[in-house]
TrEMBL record:
Annotated spans, Disordered: 26-46
Phylogenetic lineage: Bacteria, Bacillati, Actinomycetota, Actinomycetes, Pseudonocardiales
Record InterPro entries: GerMN, LpqB_C, LpqB_N
Pfam families (UniProt xref): Germane, Gmad1, LpqB_N
Designated name of the protein: GerMN domain-containing protein
Domain GerMN stretches: 201-289
Signal peptide: 1-20
Keywords noted in UniProt: Signal
């Protein structure tokens, strides 16, 4: 283990325990390599290790593979090794953290309390979902000198702490799929222990059967919920086929069985390349179709992806122009009949919603067919955010005066009617300046006081709520100006930051990656993304495109200064 941690331990070992330092300086703890398996003997800590180094090594051993946290138990006294019952949740901290002795006076010189101080990035909850956080982490561990003269942890709390590097090395993210009313599958990003790899399909199936994480509960359906169960262990046959045995499927229609098979295959494709045999009480789940591969499934994303003929639009100087040729769109939205502030195009490209400036600083919303007159909608308010279309419903949402969400629903006669949205959980976080639907309709992304938030969309008909708001990357993502959804499980965000003007963030906030900033002039004020299309951003000089991280931004073929681009949705 050629790591910095062991180097530090060796130096401390030479120094002995007589002169124990009062504090260890914060340092980067590298991710541990794969540790001993469940059948291996776990070595004791180095002899004469001091309490601070003992605790640091304990944190580093938390995620080492082994039976029942055996590597971490090695740093405890004999009684604690037997009695410790670690929590199912895990706190993830930055790689750089410190250990320091608690300053409270201790009557026993052979007992010390060591505080682990670091920055919490988030927690892995009992549903194996990441919950972002930004608190200062504090873990207290009592350390006692044993009869052998060696320091060991005693009475350890159930809290589990691990560094970001150790977490990334030992866990793998899996977008577990759940069905939505929009006719598509929605990814629910969960994390499973990466090794042994042969056990991953069983772990993913356990997550499927247990249902969506709290952040998505109510926004999707679990086709594999009760009374469906995994009959016996998920296993590989000698020919490589992965067998998924279910029970409790009696009475389920063939159409739902096909959706159940799709939910399983879409989720397992991230952890296996094998042919998947799905059985229900020993017989094929779908009659005459026992075995499945991902390429055999219909495309459930068609209903939530804009057609390739839809090249996107942009608002420029009060008019809407095509990103395909740079020309104004037909009708008053393109010829200057309206003074357009912002706009959004329906997923099928046929409708347009625009926020129109009507003088005196007032605005109003218009919705109608692209290329025609857009009737105004009765929606009060001094300010309206750029509209966003809810997939599968034809609804248009906009934020009114940054404090309430207006929801426009079209009736049989084509009349648009405003309905309410219970957005209390989100609005209480602050003024909302941008709101974007994920194209599967299950989530929204919001910009609140320059910060990025995500919430789930729960309910249908007259009752819809925004629930479980999550603040993504609270420490590293500030001055957010705009956001859009890249596919279903990532967001692309533009900020006022010169160092990272464009970033990609996972939908749970666990990971942030910065795009190349070359050629861009801060601030980058607009962004639009859609599956299979280049990312388009707008800065002070015009429009720029790129497709992947690290790519240098190129001028858009029809770049326009002061443009705000948008793909359908």
């Amino acid at each position: 283990m050629p790591h910095l941690l062991l180097s530090v331990l060796c130096v401390l070992l030479l120094a002995g325990c007589a002169n124990v330092p009062l504090e260890s300086q914060p340092q980067v703890v590298p991710g541990e390599r794969q540790g001993p398996g469940s059948g291996d003997v776990v070595p004791d800590p180095p002899p004469n290790i001091d309490p601070l180094s003992l605790v640091r090594a304990f944190v580093g051993a938390t995620l080492k593979p082994g039976q029942n946290y055996a590597a971490a138990r090695a740093y405890m006294d004999e009684q604690s090794r037997v009695n410790w019952r670690p929590s199912r949740s895990l706190t993830i901290i930055q790689n750089t953290f410190g250990t320091v002795y608690d300053t409270s006076p201790k009557p026993d010189p052979n007992t010390q309390v060591v505080n682990v101080r670091g920055v919490e990035l988030g927690t892995l909850d009992q549903n194996s979902a990441f919950v972002p956080g930004a608190d200062q982490a504090l873990l207290q561990l009592k350390v006692r000198k044993q009869a052998t003269g060696q320091w060991r942890i005693v009475d350890p709390p159930p809290d589990l702490y691990a560094t970001e590097s150790d977490f990334s090395e030992n866990y793998t993210p899996v977008p577990v799929s759940f069905y939505s009313d929009a006719g598509t599958f929605v990814p629910d990003r969960r994390y499973v222990v990466a090794k042994p790899q042969s056990g991953l399909p069983g772990k993913v199936m356990d997550l499927l059967v247990s249902g969506p994480s709290p952040s998505l509960a109510g926004a999707v359906k679990n086709l594999l919920g009760e009374p469906v169960e995994i009959d016996t262990n998920v296993k590989n046959l000698d020919d490589g086929t992965l067998v998924v045995p279910l029970t409790g499927v009696t009475g389920v229609t063939d159409d739902v069985r096909k959706l159940m098979a799709a939910q399983i295959v879409l989720s397992l494709q991230y952890v296996t390349n094998a042919r998947i045999r799905i059985l229900a009480d020993g017989a094929p789940l779908v009659p005459n179709h026992p075995d499945w591969r991902a390429n055999e499934l219909p495309s459930y994303s068609v209903s939530v992806s804009p057609g390739f003929e839809q090249l996107g639009l942009a608002t420029v100087d009060g008019r809407i122009r095509s990103l395909g040729d740079g020309n104004p769109v037909p009708g008053p939205a393109g010829n200057g009949g309206y003074d357009v502030v912002s706009a959004a195009q329906s997923l099928d490209g046929k409708r347009l919603a625009v926020v129109e400036r009507i003088g005196g600083g007032a605005v109003r919303l218009r919705i109608g067919d692209l290329g025609h007159e857009l009737p105004p909608v009765e929606l009060g308010g001094s300010t309206l955010s750029r509209p966003t279309w809810r997939s599968g419903t034809g609804e248009v949402w906009t934020v009114v005066d940054q404090v309430s969400v207006g929801r426009m629903v079209v009736g049989p006669t084509g009349q648009w009617t405003p309905l309410g949205v219970n957005a209390t959980d989100l609005v209480q976080q602050g003024g909302i300046t941008e709101l974007r639907f994920a194209r599967d309709g299950a989530r929204v992304a919001a910009v609140i006081k320059g910060q990025l938030w995500v919430a789930s969309v729960v309910g249908s008909g007259d009752s819809v709520s925004l629930r479980e708001p999550r603040h993504l990357q609270p420490r590293d993502l500030e001055d957010v100006l705009d956001v859009d959804w890249d596919a279903q499980d990532n967001l692309v965000v533009v900020t006022n930051s010169p160092s990272q003007p464009v970033v990609r963030v996972t939908m749970d906030g666990q990971r942030l990656d910065a795009f190349n900033s070359s050629n861009l002039t801060s601030p980058v004020h607009g962004v639009t993304v859609a599956s299979g299309r280049p990312i388009v951003v707008a800065d002070a000089n015009g429009l720029w495109i790129a497709s992947v991280l690290g790519e240098v931004w190129r001028p858009h073929p029809h770049t326009m200064k002061d443009a705000d681009p948008f793909y359908p949705g």
